[in-house]
Amino acid sequence: MGDLFSQNDIWKEVLEKETSPLHKHLRLYSILPSSPRCKLCYAPFGGVGGLIMRISGRERSRMNPNMCGVCERLAKDHPGGAEIRLSLLFADIRGSTNLAEKLGTKPFSDLIARFYNAATDELIKADGLIDRLIGDEVIALFVPALAGPKHAGAAVRAAEGILRATGHDKNGGPWVPIGAGVHTGSAFVGSVGASGVSDVTALGDDVNLTARLASAAAAGEILITEAARAEAGLTTDGLESRHLELKGRAEPVDVWVMRIGAGVTARQQSKTV
Description:
Elements: H1 2-16, H2 21-29, H3 47-55, H4 69-77, E1 80-93, H5 96-103, H6 105-125, E2 129-134, E3 137-142, H7 144-147, H8 151-165, E4 178-194, E5 197-203, H9 205-216, E6 221-225, H10 226-232, E7 240-244, E8 253-259, H11 266-269
Parallel strand pairs: 4-6
Antiparallel strand pairs: 1-3, 1-4, 2-3, 4-5, 6-8, 7-8
């Protein structure tokens, strides 16, 4: 039991303190090209950056392709985690089933890869921690160690950035339709695994809530909970309020709707104070 408490203390320090190794590695490796990257330290797997990482002994894990071998071993050797306050971002493709049917397997796969790369670039800019790139969805955590105490604002900026990077602010419309959800709350973040494969993820009710928000967002919309709005310092001027009945939740959820579209600027929608 003492070892477990010790491991959880380590995770709490890594996730909450800006002096943690996680912060240092992300800052260093994020400047190297190119995607895809390790979800924890942002070590690149492709291009010149990937070559540099392989020479230095930090290559893609064979067991978990979303992580480098070094981070995968750390996660395996340090089971556990910590409950922390953080902000969460889910963004997914609207109507992906119809898109897959319309485009065919290879073009749809290329579209997903382009979406992943665009989202990853925006998350790096906003100091987000990539939880998962899976299916038609991107999930990111904004923890104090990386995004600082104003992690809610970073999550909102990342959501805006992803919608702009996918063309929602263009007159011709987006090259892929995206909806997003942002929430601030608490979650257990740490290493989980089975059959010898370890991964780092977030678990808890607030994670599930954010997933539901993204599912309820229309293309070009970011649904932001009141908790995230308040911590991000967003005014409500120009934001639509919406009362949502979400699947699996007993009580309705009140959110603010930020829209990204041609002719609509972020600062027309909100103001960070």
